[in-house]
Write a sequence for this structure.
């Protein structure tokens, strides 16, 4: 196992700066492009005038600051959250097929939002209800798994997550069954498909705060997260009790997932596809590098898809549909490429 000294070496610090610098530059370029593109194009000079409060026409400023900026930030934070959580859980569960929804966070958050829409609550309460329900779902799954033996803990976490996810999916169906089919049901159905069209700056900043806090915390624990990929007996021999770290890491990943789903609805495949894409491009590397690249890659990936969805077609397709249409063929390619070997 690589020890802490190696992880805090100057080499890793340089890698972090290189990855972070390139990632920030890429996201700045894509964000500027996304702010400019749309049914009402806004040029770079207009963006500068808006920032400096020199714009004569208020319409571009309203579109830029009230519509496009919250949506761009939401795409960045949501994509980073889902992709980072996917890379993290795949490492902890030692399974490349694991996605951020494995612990029931997505289905729990979806139920919370559906119930809030059924009750006619405000957008803020819809997002808050989704986040709290997603957190509750994960806490329930972890509580069920805690009664298992040490040797079967990981398997029980997966099974408990499946159980909780199935339960909340049934509750979502119940909410949809009782909803008004003319008004409320379409709203619930559209929300569950995933979209960033209703993003507001307040909800976006909440999601960003959760993602940044969890991301920094998880990166600071990167060497212990890497250690979780070893056998539990080996860790105990080294004097490391993996249980607190495993539960803490899963909780952070689930908080990121719940925050993302509460912001955008259910958007699948991002947390599964982007970490695999990162591994295809850079097959060698430590968890810290994989995690950083997944965060930046997920943000860029979802921002590109969202920008394409709202600019290239007259009818804006839900993001969840587009990510599935792109993600499923890509993952089929990964499976075919890796046939006969380990993922």
């Amino acid at each position: 196992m690589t020890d802490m000294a190696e992880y805090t070496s100057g080499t890793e610090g340089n890698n972090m700066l290189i990855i972070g610098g390139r990632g920030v530059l890429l996201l700045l370029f894509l964000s500027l492009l996304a702010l400019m593109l749309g049914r009402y194009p806004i040029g770079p000079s207009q963006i500068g005038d808006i920032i400096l409060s020199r714009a004569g026409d208020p319409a571009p400023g309203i579109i830029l600051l009230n519509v496009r900026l919250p949506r761009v930030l939401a795409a960045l934070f949501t994509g980073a959250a889902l992709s980072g959580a996917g890379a993290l859980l795949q490492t902890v569960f030692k399974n490349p097929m694991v996605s951020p929804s494995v612990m029931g966070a997505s289905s729990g958050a979806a139920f919370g939002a559906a119930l809030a829409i059924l009750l006619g609550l405000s957008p803020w309460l819809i997002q808050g209800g989704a986040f709290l329900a997603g957190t509750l779902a994960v806490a329930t799954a972890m509580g069920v798994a805690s009664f298992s033996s040490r040797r079967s803990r990981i398997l029980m976490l997966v099974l408990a997550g499946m159980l909780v996810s199935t339960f909340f999916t049934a509750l979502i169906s119940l909410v949809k069954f009782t909803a008004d089919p003319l008004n409320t049901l379409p709203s619930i159905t559209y929300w569950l498909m995933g979209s960033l069209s209703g993003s507001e700056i307040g909800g976006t900043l909440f999601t960003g705060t959760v993602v940044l806090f969890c991301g920094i915390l998880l990166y600071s624990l990167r060497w212990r997260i890497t250690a979780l990929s070893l056998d539990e007996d080996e860790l105990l021999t080294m004097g490391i009790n993996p249980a607190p770290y495993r539960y803490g890491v899963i909780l952070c990943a689930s908080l990121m997932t719940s925050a993302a789903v509460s912001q955008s609805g259910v958007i699948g495949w991002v947390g599964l596809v982007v970490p695999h894409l990162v591994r295809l491009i850079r097959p060698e590397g430590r968890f810290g590098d994989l995690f950083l690249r997944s965060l930046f890659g997920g943000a860029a990936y979802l921002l590109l898809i969202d920008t394409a969805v709202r600019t290239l077609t007259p009818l804006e397709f839900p993001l969840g549909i587009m990510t599935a249409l792109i993600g499923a063929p890509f993952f089929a390619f990964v499976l075919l490429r890796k046939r006969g070997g380990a993922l």
About this structure: The chain has one domain: 74-337. The CA atoms of residues 138 and 274 lie 23 Å apart. The longest helix spans residues 58-92.
